[in-house]
Amino acid sequence: MAEKSRISFTTYTDLASRPEVYDLVRKEVETVNATLPSAQRISRFLLLYKELDADDGELTRTRKVRRSVINEKYADIINGIYGGKRDIPVDTVIRFQDGTTQRIRTTLRWSISRRLRRWRRPRNEHPVPDPASGQRLVVGTLYGVVAMSFVLIYKATQVVNFAQGELLLIGAWVCWALLAKYQVPFWLGMPLTLVFMFVFGIAIQILILRPMIGEPIISVIMVTIGLSTVFQAALKWIFGVNPQPFPRVFQANPSVSSACRSRPSMS
Asked: For the purposes of burial, counting CB atoms within 10 Å of the CB of 190, is it exposed (0-12), middle (13-18) or buried (19 or more)?
């Protein structure tokens, strides 16, 4: 970036302290902020006097950041950014790969996105709710229920059931078939689906899982993986691979409590 912008520098420390570099980084930050919700936008940023290095314990050998090391090593800088301290003095020693050391004395100054600094919400403007927030809540709830099911099954049987998602999918397809194909009302189709899945689960327990009692735990896990594969293939063969819309459960018909029509009097 510095070479493309023709910014001359001697060392990395010199490059990281130049205002032109801060301007380039600020533009990139503002571009990213335009695609993020307000709660996730970057409000302040700072360029360190050195690159993060695995030899200093700041990165792993696969170039992943060691957050605990960063929080401890740069605690003064982090506290200065969050505390609103504009100028942060630095007096430290860095070690290079050849074993030589260099003492660095500088003053770091964090910067702020110009758009965030100038932007103010109008007084009469209220925050617009995110239309996808309801969908995220439903998806998050489903993930939570699935995770809780994994925990309950593991606590009861000490086995991780890899066919749990397919069993949930079987119940969904059975309910869809009752409601869409056979036109069964929802108040009857849902209990029938629960009864079917109860009987189906007992059949799997008696015919497949119970004979595995006493076998190594890995064997039981492999059986659940096999069931998962078989169920996926069977559902694709029976219902196809194309997604199907689930019938509407609640009809959103408007209700009219009363109506009144006046007619002009004739004399």
From this structure: middle
